[in-house]
Each structure stands twice: as structure tokens, then as C-alpha cells.
Design a protein that fits this description.
It contains 9 helices and 13 strands. It has 308 residues and is an alpha+beta fold. Bound molecules: 2-acetamido-2-deoxy-beta-D-glucopyranose (5 copies). The site of one 2-acetamido-2-deoxy-beta-D-glucopyranose has 7 residues, from helix 7.
Length: 308
């Protein structure tokens, strides 16, 4: 079976239309399969969202209501095919009304319900701002049209400078795509999140939606091709990166390449081992943050032991 076919089978297995129709906001239970060993990252507090679109679960987001933006999104990578869908931006009705339908729905053309506006970011927050809409779970990392469309919800988006979004961060997304599609043989679990400013939060148009100082991403691919080229030896089973979202940030976490093109200068991405990422997260959040169960090292043998 080719990798592509294998991934398609996996995608179809999860797309089998199973929908226990529990609440999708407030609990990761219906979408635990997107986390390695069904183990959501530990250490960050927020509102869990199982991202349901067209009655299927596509990924998971830990949302911050006070920031009106996500802490992280977690998803299964699948080899992309086809074009980026034309953006039809959606919102999460259950953030405003717990009894509402669990599917994300497109913003209506007319005026918005005030409870929806209060509960989350809306398109007006981003319009005429100096930030673009930065996907945490990018449409580029998915095979099916539905998986891709489902990423276009503002609950999966943070204010991201264009110099990052169209520059080094996009390069990172493409590099991860090439690395995983070439050498990951089973599931690849990806978690992408943000690091807030240490002091003095910034807000989109000085208003309602918090702006992150950095973005981070990490993957876990427990089953990979052992004959890796030398330069990819350190990239399995897990790897991580932090990207700058503010060209004026200091350089302790991510140094600046002074010779980068002007429009991308100061938006560098620094690849690093998972432990290094977790060290910076601990530093900024003042608590231990664990992205993957046993740092993605839990082997099948381990699972067996734990189950007995
Ligand atoms: C955005 O800016 C343009 C040009 O200044 C203005 O015409 C438009 O009304 C603004 N839109 C919003 C939603 O503020
Ligand atoms: C993602 O990876 C696939 C498989 O290697 C490749 O065909 C495709 O061009 C890549 N897409 C991007 C945007 O890098
Ligand atoms: C693993 O990688 C090697 C070298 O790139 C390749 O020849 C081999 O077919 C790959 N194996 C699998 C199972 O994809
Ligand atoms: C960075 O600093 C420059 C010069 O002070 C300022 O013009 C720019 O708006 C700042 N950028 C950000 C993202 O704060
Ligand atoms: C800095 O950016 C330049 C221009 O994009 C590139 O050629 C060079 O390799 C980069 N240097 C480092 C250390 O990444």
C-alpha cells in the first residue's frame, strides 16, 4: 500500500460519519483520536472545541474565551491534494449558545447575533487590521476538501503578521509537509499553538482579540522510515519549531537573520527539539506544558504494559 493510499484509508476510517452528537464545546472526548495516544496536551487551560464540520469531527482546538483566539489546534496530517479552498469563514455557535448545533457555520452576510460577537472573534476584528488570519491548523496539511474547508474557522486562527504568514511560517508548513509525506509511515499528530506576550498583551486593533508574540508547532510521528537521510536524523519521531510574530521581539528565543528579505525580516522560525520547545513554554506559561504523551516516545510495548 502506498503512503498516499494508507493515509486515505485512515482518513476514510475517521470520516465514517460517526457522530455521537455530544456537545462539541467543553470536552475533547468526541475527538480524542486527533491526539497521540488520545492524550491532549497538558498544562494549558481553556475551552476545548471538537471542530465539527458537515457532521464530522476534523480537528481539536483549545480556545481562550478571554483572548477570543486559540491556544492551540491539534490535528492529524494527511498528504495534501487539490487547491486551497476559497475561504468561507466560519464561527462556532456553541461558544455563544451551549445548546446550539455542534457544527461550525459560515458567517451570515447580514448583521451578527450579539452573543456570537461577544463570545468569539468575528470577521470585522480582522478587517482593516495590520494582521492577517493565521491558521494554526493549515489547510495545506490535509487531503480531503472537507478537512481543508474545516480549517477556515476563526476559532482556529490568530492574528499573524503577513511577514510570518507568507514567509518563514509558510516555509515551515511546507517543510513539515515534505518531511512527513516522505518519511512518516503511520499517523502524524501535529499540535500548533501560540506564545503570548510576557507583559502588556497586544490586541487586534487595540480591541478584542489577543495577538501572540510567537507561534509554535510540533509533530509526533511514532512510525517512520528508519532509513532517513543524514540531515533528517534528528527530525523523527518528533520535532518542533517556534516562529516570531513580532519583528521587534528580543532575540533570546528566536534570533533574527539580518540578511533575510526585508518583508520577512524579523519573522524567523527556529527549528528545535521538542524538549527545547517545552522549556520555552514552561518559561512563558510558568507551568509545565507537555505537548505529547511521554514526549512522543511511548512505544507499542509501553502501551501494552500500561494496559495490563
Ligand atoms: C476599511 O478601510 C476602508 C478604507 O479606509 C474603508 O472604506 C472601510 O469602510 C473599512 N472597513 C471597515 C469594516 O472598517
Ligand atoms: C506537500 O507534499 C506533497 C507530497 O510530497 C507534494 O506533492 C506537495 O507539492 C507538497 N505541497 C506543498 C505546498 O509543499
Ligand atoms: C524508506 O526510505 C528509503 C530511502 O529513501 C526508501 O528506499 C524506502 O522505499 C522507504 N521505505 C518505505 C517503507 O517507505
Ligand atoms: C516595530 O518597531 C517599529 C519602530 O519602532 C514600529 O514602526 C513597528 O510598528 C513595530 N512593529 C510591531 C509589530 O510592533
Ligand atoms: C539568512 O537569509 C538569507 C537570505 O534569505 C539566506 O540566504 C541565509 O541562508 C540565511 N541565513 C541563515 C543563518 O539562516
Amino acid at each position: 500500500m502506498s503512503l498516499r493510499v494508507a493515509l486515505a484509508v485512515v482518513v476514510l476510517a475517521f470520516a465514517g460519519g460517526w457522530c455521537p452528537c455530544l456537545a462539541d464545546v467543553g470536552d475533547f472526548a468526541p475527538c480524542l483520536h486527533v491526539f497521540y495516544k488520545s492524550w491532549p496536551p497538558k498544562g494549558l487551560a481553556g475551552t476545548p472545541i471538537c471542530q465539527r464540520y458537515d457532521n464530522q469531527y476534523h480537528f481539536a482546538t483549545l480556545y481562550s474565551r478571554p483572548r477570543r483566539s486559540p491556544w492551540f489546534s491539534a490535528y492529524l496530517y494527511s498528504v495534501p491534494a487539490g487547491k486551497r479552498p476559497s475561504a468561507s469563514w466560519k464561527f462556532e455557535p456553541q461558544l455563544a449558545y451551549p445548546g446550539a448545533d455542534g457544527n461550525m457555520i459560515p458567517f451570515p452576510p447580514g448583521p451578527l447575533d450579539q452573543n456570537v460577537v461577544e463570545s468569539q472573534a468575528v470577521e470585522l476584528d480582522y478587517i482593516n487590521s495590520t494582521y492577517s488570519r493565521g491558521h494554526l491548523n493549515p489547510s495545506l496539511h490535509h487531503h480531503t476538501h472537507e478537512d481543508r474547508s474545516a480549517t477556515f474557522t476563526l476559532t482556529n486562527v490568530v492574528p499573524q503578521k503577513a511577514g510570518s504568514n507568507d514567509g518563514p511560517w509558510e516555509v515551515l508548513e511546507q517543510t513539515v509537509n515534505k518531511t512527513l509525506s516522505a518519511y512518516c509511515l503511520g499517523e502524524a499528530y501535529i499540535v500548533t499553538g501560540i506564545i503570548p506576550y510576557l507583559n502588556d498583551e497586544r490586541w487586534l486593533k487595540n480591541h478584542r482579540v489577543a495577538v501572540p508574540e510567537y507561534m509554535w508547532s510540533a509533530y509526533c510521528c511514532p512510525n517512520y522510515n528508519n532509513s532517513l537521510p543524514e540531515k533528517l536524523k534528528d527530525f523523527f519521531p518528533t520535532y518542533a519549531a517556534i516562529g516570531r510574530n513580532d519583528c521587534n521581539s528580543t532575540e533570546e528565543i528566536v534570533p533574527v537573520n539580518k540578511t533575510a528579505k526585508k518583508q520577512f525580516r524579523g519573522f524567523d522560525v527556529r527549528p528545535m527539539p521538542l524538549e527545547t520547545l517545552e522549556m520555552y513554554l514552561k518559561d512563558r506559561f510558568n507551568t509545565v506544558v507537555s505537548v505529547f504523551y511521554e514526549q512522543c516516545s511511548g512505544s507499542e510495548a509501553n502501551t501494552h504494559r500500561l494496559k495490563q
